[in-house]
Write a structure and sequence with these properties.
By secondary structure, the protein is mainly β. It has strands at 22-24, 29-34, 39-48, 54-66, 70-74, 87-88, 93-96, 101-109, 118-137, 140-156, 164-173, 180-188, 194-203, 209-214, 218-220, 224-231, 238-248, 251-261. Helix content is 0%, strand content 60%. The strands form four sheets. Strands 2, 4, 5, 7, 9 and 10 form a six-stranded mixed β-sheet that branches. Strands 13, 14, 15, 17 and 18 form a five-stranded antiparallel β-sheet that branches. Strands 1-3-8-6 form a four-stranded antiparallel β-sheet, with no helix packed on it.
Length: 262
């Protein structure tokens, strides 16, 4: 039986809420699925909510995912699943009039290569050039600008079977609300992005069900880990038996584990 001991650390957070002058209406993830040689037409809907002109620029960036670092944006190198060269758009900057809604159009063309198989992606950066806040601190001017990262995901050719696994479980304390939580690390071992949801059942030593909960779905990229967080703060000290299920594309992977809260 595994015992997990918790260390309590206090953090101080300063949160500042700002209102953007330009917003994305139709989401920050755009997904496509097709075969070699196919072209998709996509669009991003923007709205200038302010009473002045707003200049918006567009550029592409690579999003590199790893278990160690999570997500890192870069323009220095392409990863092996990059679809940056598949992207086309005739517009890379636009001035939005006050209260204007604008549709940014682009296309994604999968190369005519039958050997392509798996998930490919690039990231469209939408930059609002006009600062949303200007202030002076100790004679230094600070500009706060808005930048959106829009994921463009493309699944190519036949999908293989779901291949996800559990890499580890950690009992921790949420640094914001101080509640006890389970961090369950899931590894996607397939070549396709998986949209994973976890469900968790926790039983006491008598077999009584004490907790039955599930997470929201989240994308796990190929050969990358992702942590799923589940609140277990209502459980008292004790030893419990847990059943964890991971679901993607109506396929399920499960595991049993013992949990001790001290």
């Amino acid at each position: 039986m595994k015992s997990i001991t918790l260390s309590f650390i206090s953090f101080l957070f300063c949160i500042q809420i700002m209102q953007a002058n330009v917003v994305i209406i139709n989401g920050l993830t755009h997904s496509f699925s097709g075969v070699s040689g196919q072209t998709f037409q996509g669009q991003i809907m923007l709205a200038n909510t302010s009473n002045v002109d707003q200049r918006v620029t567009f550029d592409l960036s690579e999003a590199i995912y790893t278990c160690a670092d999570g997500r890192v944006f870069t323009k220095e190198t392409m990863h092996e699943n990059s679809s940056t060269n598949w992207f086309e758009s005739s517009t890379m900057d636009k001035v939005l009039a006050p209260k204007e809604k604008y549709i940014y159009k682009y296309s994604i063309t999968i190369p005519n290569d039958a050997t392509l198989n798996g998930s490919y992606w690039t990231t469209l950066m939408v930059n609002v050039d006009k600062p949303i806040r200007e202030e002076v601190v100790s004679s230094i001017g600070l500009d706060t600008k808005i930048r959106y990262a829009i994921r463009l995901l493309t699944d190519v050719n036949v999908k293989e079977e779901v291949d996800i696994d559990f890499e580890g479980v950690n009992l921790s304390i949420n640094s914001v609300n101080r509640k006890r939580q389970l961090e369950i690390k899931v590894l996607n071992q397939s070549i396709f992005i998986e949209n994973v949801k976890l469900s968790l059942e926790i039983f006491d030593t008598y077999g009584n069900l004490l907790l039955d909960t599930e997470t929201k779905r989240a994308k796990v990229f190929p050969e990358v880990c992702r942590d799923f967080i589940i609140d277990v703060s209502k459980l008292p000290q004790g030893t419990y038996q847990c059943v964890v299920m991971a679901d993607s594309r109506d396929e399920y992977v499960g595991t049993n584990m013992s949990l001790t809260i001290e």
